[in-house]
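Why does this matter for the project? Reviewers at the last site visit asked to see concrete outputs rather than summary tables. In response, this paragraph embeds two records directly. Each consists of the residue sequence and, immediately after it, the corresponding structure tokens. Nothing has been edited or filtered.
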Amino acid sequence: MVDFPVSLLHFFRVTPHATVSLGRFTGVLLATTTTLLLGAQAVYANDVQLPKGQRSLEVRQTQGKVTYKGSRPRPAQSGDRLSAGQGLTTAARSSAVIGIDSNIGIVKVAEKTDFTVRNLTIAADGGRVTLLNVHRGQVALQVRPFTNKGSRLEVKTPSGIAGVRGTEFGVAVSPQGRTAIMTNEGSVAAEAQGQSVMVEAGYSSLIYPGEPPTPPRPTVEDLSLKLNTSDAYRSGLVRVAGKVDPINAVIYGDQELEVGRDGSFRLESRTQQRNWATIVVRTPLGKEKTHTIWLR
């Protein structure tokens, strides 16, 4: 496994007037078909639970305020090991890179994300089974192709479970529980409410709680923001309404705004600036752009 420089963390940072691109592995990732399953899924019957501490994830890098979730929460640091039931939370403008044992891959944890290791097991054929939870926020995964049929990696969200066998994709969970999936390499089969769609490389899909996945559509990575209205700073309040690509997240300060099915959003909040405000638009893979809104 190649160690990743601190610069790879920058795609999670909010940088005014800049677009930050997702970094890639050094080397070649071979894409294979992967699976997205909805709902809780039990550990397979032929999985063998390893003794505590035998398998773990390693915190490779941290930036900003990252908290280690264990028996006693504390600041996380490089070299920390995460076993089942442990995890990380990131504050605003903070991020982390986690390495999965046996050189399986890495997980890049964006700001304002709650991440937990659900379980770490080994299959009957020696394959590694890695089950992760993302309660809120955004992660990007780069996973090498597995050599054992029993190997799998799953990321559970409030809306579903993203299962991979070797691919690069992003998962973003909104405060309302919506899950956005964007596949960069490989393919993902999205299944929910008895319906299934295949999300190939270069395509994206959304899963709303209690609904089947939306039909996959080509990923254009449109980070633009179309402003409908903006009101001047009055009594400390700013009001903004606009639209983005519905697959994207919209962040104002420490707050992720609700994005409608058509990409519409509304903002009403206090601000310290009298003439302008900044809004960040971010894809599920972590690419983002900061927009400056000039107020009338």
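We now turn to the second protein, recorded in exactly the same manner.
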Amino acid sequence: MQVLHDAPLAPLTTFRLGGPATRLVTAGTDAEVVAAVREADDSGTPLLVIGGGSNLVIGDKGFDGTALRIATRGVELRGSTLELAAGEVWSDAVARTVEAGLAGIECLAGIPGSAGATPIQNVGAYGQEVSSTITEVVAYDRRAGETVILTNEECAFSYRHSRFKADPDRYVVLRVRFALEDADGLSAPLKYAETARALGVATGDRVPLADARETVLKLRAGKGMVLDPEDHDTWSAGSFFTNPILTAEQFAAFHARVRERLGDGVEPPAYPAGEGRTKTSAAWLIDKAGFTKGYGTGPARISTKHTLALTNRGEATTEDLLALAREVVAGVRAAFGVTLVNEPVTVGVSL
């Protein structure tokens, strides 16, 4: 276990933003993770858990407490079951499953961050979500003071949400277990139209696993969603806002605002979201509200490749980023009556 004091946190995030932590602990085993958490809890010290730092916005003043960086390693494949230590690099784990001929997470290729973060956010992209394949999550329950195993149902997954996100101070994820599919080297049925089009097949078709992964990586790279230290479009947290899910009444009001602003012939993106709800596109809202690719003149700007990504152009502060985010939220609300919600976790700051 490594312990540093007054340690910079910006290098541990994909935004490369944020001030230092009073104390930074790097834990390489589950036992070290649990010991560090218990020490903080027993002493009443604020605790910030960091994985890959790809979904994190830390304030410029930093974190007054213990930042715990989870650096555990371990990949275990048994038949079509997979167990990942929380600190495993997610994109590497996806590549391993594709090489092993197992389907279920291949369209989640290229997503930055650690395996332990995936159930917290119910990470999803290109028609797949981890909730579809996760069977169990091993976590340290800070309230009970013991390690527990939560089933898929107990994780209470929903769109970009989970039991862990709903109660962020209770659980620290240690390991994640998945049930994948052996489909003779083929992917799971493709659910996302853009992926299917890029592969020249129909939605619902299966394709070779490697083809699915490579296609997703190309699509993500085209939007600045694959990390590249030389490309400031990737100095981001990926999608900064979640796609809004609206009730029937909310969607009707939104639709009326669209017609009023853009004309009767314009239909906003709309996808069934269960229980009479409709999901629309945050990227579409941002663009149609006037915040186009590359928007901004300061050190924090919208990506030149994707309107849903807010980026650090190299000299930004967290306050620069938040000012841009607030401008976008206010602009979308004024244009369409919809309030965007940030996807990254904020530490010491808020929109």
